[in-house]
Amino acid sequence: MPTYSHWDIALLQGIQVNRFCALVSFTILYFDYFIVFSTEVERFWKGFTLSWASALFVANRYLSLVASIPILLEYFGDPPEPRCRQLQSFHQYLALLTQGTVAALLLIRTYALYNRSKHILYLMLITCFAGGAVSAWSIMSDGKYVSDADSSLLRLSGCDLSLSNQQGRHISIAWGSMLVFDTLIFALTVAKIIKSDKKIWKGTLFKLMLRDGAIYYGIMVVINIANIVTFVVRTPNLKHRVLLNHVGLY
């Protein structure tokens, strides 16, 4: 009977915690879809007209719902090792695609918020495309690092969900580029709010921030920072994905 080190056991426990966090994320994703589906049909589908905005809404709404099925297999199935690697690559590209969809929606919204200012549009486009290029490079150049952890132990738990320090650095670069764009959107939104009402200390700022979604952007910035920290903080060999990674995706 093989013996495992304390680190191997801790790694396996971390992966299991990661799976529980993923389960929470998937549950929230599908629960949110079903509780607002009737409202979506009433307010969107009955008067549906094809446009860039409606196409992006459908992509943002249904891409994660459908594409999460292979991710469920990655986290809770027991596929062979080559299939695991394919699923994990798919997961990273899906994250890039969903973030791109969200970025497009935020870009359109902020463009409208600034009365279709070309200068603001160009600033956002340059930041978005630069961040997307960096994210794509960091994901495509991310190879699997051979670790010292006991692979037989990891295979007992299905797909190996651990990340090497090298992978953590690469993925943190991708999240960092997303953070730059999210921070820009957050700053532009808050700047617009402050300019729209001079009485910011008389109870109106909070309502305006809720109206314009700046609080949401601020939360996403904090989540991205926390995500980056989990990827760059060094551990003996490997890292494991955590809840914040799922929040960032969905």
TrEMBL record:
Key words, A-Z: Membrane, Transmembrane, Transmembrane helix
Domain DUF6533 stretches: 21-66
Originating organism: Obba rivulosa
Name by which UniProt lists this protein: DUF6533 domain-containing protein
One Pfam family per UniProt: DUF6533
TM region positions: 20-38, 50-73, 93-114, 121-140, 173-194, 214-233
